[in-house]
Design brief:
- The chain has 432 residues and is α/β, with parallel strands linked by helices.
- It folds into two domains: 203 residues, Alpha-beta prism (UDP-n-acetylglucosamine1-carboxyvinyl-transferase, Chain); 206 residues, UDP-n-acetylglucosamine1-carboxyvinyl-transferase, Chain.
- It contains 16 helices and 24 strands.
- Helix 10 runs parallel beside helix 14 and helix 12 packs parallel to helix 14.
- Bound molecules: ligand EPZ.
Length: 432
């Protein structure tokens, strides 16, 4: 029997039976406010474990994943207080550097606590995350990086045990670019003895903001935004405050909704985080108007087919691959979508096909032949971004689409049905 705190983490039967009902084919017009970035706030929350004091994080999105991370921080002993979208975390009471399997298996980002707990306490025990909806997602780069900093890593009963009296700065070169491994090593190196250099570091805006947060706390990271980071370890950090950047993946999702179905203005969206996506949307014929903190997109008569190959930032994000396939299902020709980051992230294709999409998968390439009409049908979410693609396709389809297992979408999108309803969509949540 799981202890009380863990029970709330499993999607309870109600959540699993929750579904979204969409009556498609309506035009979407109006404004949508983009929430704080899930993939920025999660590592920032774990960076709070580096500090013997209280940090304040603003524009925290209300997601299943941020809720899970709050639970994890409490399990390791931190104190948290969430008021509206402001989260205060006090790391001074951390006393249990262990992250349990029951929790880590529900959210891979839990693995981000390994670096900070090891750096601060000299020992950490974190469950291996296990697989996810689209296949194995290893953590070997995280572990090799920590070993380079002098950690002793052992595997016991599915748990990683990392130990180091004091981590030592070193040169670490990632053979492939990894957002999570870069984040974990940055947090570990921030308190190491001496200087570390990370080569082939991830440059995603979420990692840039993690570096900014650590520097605000007194850390010494140079090269922020580049793929080579120089981190001079300090003996301790002091509390700081930060406002989370807008979620570029949520923004990309709504941009595609506008290109498919109407005229949408995104408020609190950073075009500079979406250059490749905006270029691709323009190539489909969408009309885009960019301002400092907003982006307006208008659908035109037809959606031209545009090929996409995912890549690390600033390339086209793998987290928008499923949504792009949904959009290309309504194009006037054939488009090829290739995912080079995850070769098997295509669980959404059979579900999109149930709505009439014409998609052929060859290894990690989806060949999408656009069709005039998609028709509503019952479909099932398999992961966060697959769910988003089903919502886009359901909104564009004629008739009713029921999307089950809505807890997936709630992991990464805040109030999604409310945001689409405000744009004119006929979408509601129902428990079966
Ligand atoms: C982050 O996951 C994001 N999650 C993912 O978003 C995103 O899809 C991914 O980066 C790629 O951009 C968060 O930020 C919380 P990686 P992460 O390490 O860090 C391989 C969403 O929908 N790899 O950059 O786990 C890996 O298999 C989620 O919001 C190793 O081989 O991704 C993949 O092929 C889904 N060994 C590639 O690197 C490792 O030790 C990139 O993965 C680590 C990764």
């Amino acid at each position: 029997m799981l202890p009380k705190t863990y029970q709330r983490l499993e999607p309870c039967t109600k959540d699993i039976m929750d579904k979204l009902i969409i009556d498609g084919g309506r035009e979407l017009t109006g404004e949508v406010n983009i929430s704080g970035a899930k993939n920025a706030v999660l590592p920032i929350m774990t960076a709070a474990l580096l500090v013997d004091g209280q940090v304040c994080i603003k524009r925290v999105p209300r997601l299943r994943d941020t809720g899970t991370m709050v639970k994890l921080l409490e399990i390791v002993g931190a104190r948290t207080e969430l008021t509206g979208d402001v989260l205060e975390i006090d790391g001074s009471t951390v006393n249990n550097p262990e992250a349990p399997y029951e929790l880590v298996k529900t959210m891979r980002a839990s693995f981000y606590v390994l670096g900070p707990l090891l750096a601060r306490f000299g020992r950490a025990k974190v469950s291996l995350p296990g697989g996810c909806a689209w296949g194995p997602r290893p953590v070997d780069l995280h572990l090799k990086g920590l070993e380079k900093l002098g950690a002793k890593i052992t595997l016991e009963g599915g748990y990683i045990i990392a130990e180091a009296k004091r981590l030592k700065g070193n040169r670490i070169r990632f053979e492939i670019s990894s957002v999570g491994a870069t984040g974990n090593i940055i947090m570990a190196a921030a308190l190491a003895d001496g200087t570390s250099v990370i080569e082939n570091a991830a440059r995603e805006p979420e990692i840039v903001q993690l570096c900014e947060f650590i520097n605000l706390m007194g850390g010494k990271i140079n090269g922020v935004g580049s793929d080579e980071l120089t981190i001079t370890g300090v003996t301790s950090l002091k509390p700081a405050n930060i406002t989370v950047i807008p979620d570029r993946i949520e923004a990309g999702t709504f941009l595609m909704a506008g290109a498919m179905l109407g005229d949408i203005k995104l408020i609190n969206a950073k075009a500079s985080h979406l250059t490749t996506v905006l270029d691709k949307l323009e190539a489909t014929g969408a009309v885009i108007d960019i301002n400092e903190d907003s982006i307006r997109i208008k659908q035109t008569s037809e959606i031209k087919p545009v090929d996409v190959t995912t890549a690390v930032y600033p390339g086209f994000p793998t987290d928008l691959q499923a949504q792009w396939i949904a959009m290309m299902s309504k194009s006037t020709g054939t488009a090829v979508i290739t995912d080079t980051i995850y070769q098997d992230r295509f669980a959404h294709i059979p579900e999109l096909s149930r709505l009439g999409a014409n998609i052929r998968l060859e290894k990690n390439e989806a060949i999408v032949r656009g069709t005039e009409r998609l028709k509503g049908a019952p479909v099932m979410s398999t992961d966060i971004r697959a769910s988003a693609s089903l919502i886009l396709a359901g909104l564009a389809a004629q008739g009713r689409t029921d999307i089950s297992r809505v807890y997936h979408i709630d992991r990464g999108y805040e109030n999604i049905e409310q945001k689409f309803r405000n744009l004119g969509a006929a979408i509601r949540r129902e428990s079966e």
